[in-house]
Amino acid sequence: MAIMKFAPTMLKQLFQKPVTTKYPMEPIQYPEGSRGHVVVEIQACVSCSLCAMSCPCGAIQVDRKEKTWTINRFDCVQCGYCVTVCPPKALSIVPGYQTPGEEKYSVTEQHIMTEEEKQKALEAEAKKQAAIKAAMEKKKAAEAAAKETK
Ligand code: SF4
Ligand code: SF4
User: Does a structural domain hold residue 139?
Assistant: First the structure.
């Protein structure tokens, strides 16, 4: 009698497509919302290091001087926290998992400065130097004035 209970399920399964796929012959379809791996739009990255500071695994390193962004994918747990803290929204999580490997390795991306960015950086540096010079001169003048009043 038990077979009678299973019969409808068995018949249904006979006419359904298999739930398994022929991977790797067929490309894998990642389910919606799956967390694959973190990618950076490096030209949008401003090297603020917020992602590196907030990563619970220490998987990201940012070199402000060299303008590089490095991730050790084997340390990343795809929590997505770095994506939420990035001010210019340069980070995102896309489908596709890290290929297994025998050794941990890092992936580095480098922001190449455009001519406009170089010009802006030069102007910012010149402004900074001018502000330092003005502050030093102000300090010297205040010291000289204090000496005269003595
Ligand atoms: S997804 Fe999480 S673990 Fe991976 S790099 Fe970002 S903050 Fe770190
Ligand atoms: S938080 Fe965004 S902008 Fe800042 S260093 Fe990371 S990727 Fe670059």
Answer: yes
**Is the CB of 48 inside a 6 Å radius of any atom of ligand 2?**
yes
The tokens for 110 are 């480098």
Whole-model pTM: value is 0.73
What's the Rg (C-alpha) of the chain? 29
- The one-letter amino acid code at 96 reads G
Going by CA atoms, what residue is nearest to atom 4 of ligand 2?
Answer: 48
**Per-residue pLDDT tens over the stretch 51-89:** 999 999 999 999 999 999 999 999 999 999 999 999 999
Which stretches does DSSP call E strand in 13-138? Answer: 37-40, 60-63, 68-72, 91-94, 106-110
Structurally, the chain folds into a number of domains equal to 2
The range of the structural domain enclosing residue 96 comes to 30-112
Tokens 């012959």 appear where?
Answer: 25
Could you give the CA distance from residue 99 to residue 107 in angstroms, rounded to a whole number? 13
Do 63 and 106 sit in the same domain of this protein? yes
Q: Report whether 68 contacts 60 (CB < 8 A).
A: no
